[in-house]
Design a protein that fits this description.
By secondary structure, the chain is mainly α. The chain is 47% helix and 5% strand. A two-stranded antiparallel sheet has the order 1-2. Helix 2 (31-47) crosses helix 4, helix 3 (65-74) crosses helix 4 and helix 4 runs antiparallel to helix 5.
């Protein structure tokens, strides 16, 4: 079974590796480790930023995607972290609700305690629901990430 765990921290240095993998990681990857890592992937897609990036706006130096995005998502400021290349979701219709569901799913995936993270089945259901609400904005993210 494949395990998702490396998002490039080795390019920066070992001191940053802990920022991208399961905080409960103990040299054995499990399904909840995959869920945490998938949350990182979702945040990367939503923000258009790397898992660890230089935050030039606040001059904080290197920052991990969770520290950047999760507090804003939890305080209902998702629009502040969305990838500007995609543009904001339409406020009429269901786009905003769909994007919010993806963001909240990512936050749940990144819970510090593995037992409190959703299962991949729950995540898949949330993503299906999000796509059924409105797939336009989410497909623009996918196109940008694919280089289209």
């Amino acid at each position: 079974m494949a395990r998702v765990s490396d998002f490039g921290p080795s390019l920066i240095g070992p001191e940053y590796e802990i920022l991208c993998i399961d905080p409960e990681f103990n040299r054995i990857l499990n399904a909840k480790s995959d869920v945490y890592s998938f949350g990182v992937v979702l945040l990367v897609l939503l923000t258009g930023k790397a898992a660890i990036f230089e935050d030039i706006d606040s001059r904080r130096g290197l920052i991990d995607i969770a520290s950047f995005a999760v507090p804003k998502i939890l305080s209902n400021e998702l629009f502040m972290v969305l990838d500007p290349r995609v543009g904001p979701p339409e406020q009429t219709g269901n786009e905003a609700e769909a994007v919010d569901l993806v963001a909240k799913t990512a936050v749940c995936c990144m819970n510090l305690e593995g037992k409190n993270r959703p299962t991949m089945s729950d995540i898949a259901a949330n993503l299906k629901q999000s796509f059924s609400l409105c797939d336009g904005w989410l497909l623009r993210i996918i196109d940008i990430e694919a280089g289209k």
